[in-house]
Specification:
The protein is an alpha+beta fold. It has 30 helices and 19 strands. The protein has 5 domains: 3-207, Hypothetical protein af1432 (Orthogonal Bundle), CATH 1.10.3210; 212-368, 2-Layer Sandwich (Beta Polymerase, domain 2), CATH 3.30.460; 373-491, Ubiquitin-like (UB roll); 492-583, no CATH class; 669-744, ACT domain (Alpha-Beta Plaits, 2-Layer Sandwich). It binds manganese (II) ion.
Length: 746
Amino acid sequence: MNTDKEHAEEKMINEAFQGMLNTYLASKHRKKVDIITRAFNFAKHAHKGVRRNSGEPYILHPIAVARVVSEEIGLGSTSICAALLHDVVEDTEYTVEDIANLFGPKIAQIVDGLTKISGGIFGDKASAQTENFKKLLLTMSEDIRVILIKIADRLHNMRTLEHMAPNKQYKIAGETLYIYAPIAYRLGLNKIKMELENLSFKYEHPEEYAGIEKKLAMTQAEREKLFADFTAPIKARLDEMGVKYTLLGRIKSPYSIWRKMQAKQLAFDEIFDILAVRIIFEPKNPKEEANECFNIYIALSHLYRTHPDRFRDWVNQPKTNGYQALHVTLMSNHGEWVEVQIRSQRMNDIAEQGVAAHWKYKESGYVEEDEVDLNKWLLTIKEILDDPQPDAMDFLDAIKLNLYSSEIFVFTPKGDIKTMPQGCTALDFAFSIHSVLGTHCIGAKVNHKLVPMSHVLESGDQVEVLTSKTQNVKPEWLSMVTTAKAKSKIQGILRREERAAHKEGERLMTEFVERENLTLDVHNTARLCRMLGFSEYEQLLIAIGRGSVTLGDAERSVLKGHSSSSNILGRLFRSNKKEAVDDLHLPIGHLQKIDKKRPLILTDEALQGSYHMADCCHPIPGDDVLGFIDDDGQIVIHQRKCPMATKLKAAYGNRIVAAQWSTHKLLHFSVSINIKGIDGVGVVNQITNVISRELNVNMERILIEAYDGIFDGTIRLRVHDVDDIKVICDNLKRLNNIRSVIRIDG
Ligand code: MN
């Protein structure tokens, strides 16, 4: 045993703990150093001898999580202790009772919540993660500190992700992007949300991440000059006004830049809002801070021209995550628009620390963590959980929808204000008020004008819901709503209705079989389904129950010719169903054949046989990709940025395999490109010339539309890889009339 090394590690651990403790001592919390030190010593003892993947002593992880909890989220001693102890119950022999005896019931309860969430996350059940996620949300609505600590835990794991195998990296990065970043955003932890997204991006698209970082570094001097020139008159003016302030340059994160480049198909140089200026001021009178925001705005508007369409008042109408600030966009003397964000110190703390910062500003001297109110959003989550959706993906979608939506304000006929997500319809509004109102909705009056229930609402609309007693929920309503609440309510009602129809269908079928002296087995029911156009027998039963299929002569002749025993029916289909479930789990057993720790190598041979290219994102060699093992044990290759892949990572992370290309321009893949430009004689000729003559690429389909002197064309080509696409796009861009050439999905 190396005692020198032991000493060095002991020193490192104590220093890490002291560093964490210092952040706590600098906060406004009551100084409960004693219990924190006890928690540290206990955790250190419990994790003794265990190391992380990086080789570090394990205890450094809980210390780091506690530090995030204290320094970056601003929580107090209870949370710090729970963070220090968060992996003890899961990874060591100590129990929740031990924790309760030593540290009291509150800390034990939080540790218990944290243990429940993480238990089984790497389990083999396909939906285990979704189950986990539900648990996480449930525990969160009991004590929000559980989720805040969980986010800190995730942040530290993301910061140290380099030590994990690539397939785990994708799974963790995907989950982070799909679940943790939205939750962090919703709780107002904007800084952490940004870091989580950025780290996920870094692991999913390392090259693109590095590319953006490099360009940011290259343009840094330019931005610094712009910042200095632009802020000099602002500083002078604020000083004159006697405002105490800090001026910061906010640089857009590589992830946000990349998102914008993707969404709007822009090049890096075309992103103009990489730099924003932040003015954080100390209000002279805390009660007047809103007015002071506006005074600063007025002063700025005398210095620079303001952009009429880009003024956002989050001061009087805070976002639901608590965010407050005044956003204005000004024309710099260099001729560029620059966004300026004006916030008081309090608003800034809330912008960065969200819910946790609210405690800091309680009127009473010391703050008590337990005073946190569960906000409205948590109640919505509870409502969604009360009506659990059977489909893991739907569930994740519903939650995500709810996490990321931006808001509009809508008025009831009585003038009450309601906050709704952008893009919501009159039907969403009806369900948001009461499910009875939603269920019987036939339309609405928006600003006294009659509109259908699918009408999309705008901020400031006054909405009156119109109902009829005879109206009832229909499946097509699902496409008319966007809120999680309305969706889950409609699905709930439809499912109940479906169950009733299924039961009725079963009854009618049994009756029919008995009356006609028939028998049912797997083969003749399959034939019956084929004849009537159903892929599943259950669906057929539902249709029978609803009365859209009636059993008669044709059905009798399909089922005829077997000995009869009517009650075999139930048994048969119950057992049949069970087999289906086992089938679903079988491939996971098969997975042993695939070494998930190693990346799949996508060779030309493998691509012709074993692997399947996803239809949603059509990956081709050169794209950032990953493999997903589907229910049949087949490997499907998705682009890493594909929205479907993101969902799969979050819902079935343990079926993700890293993948790398190793192709040699042997196979062809279909890819579509979109070309926009100025219409003129011979443009189409020029384009096809470049593609088929100069580059000798085969075209599968051309679709060109021209209107008002503009043309817009989509061409499907056969190429080997992304390099081919790049050559094609570059060559086409050189044509005179062409304005943009981009690859599109599909
Ligand atoms: Mn942990």
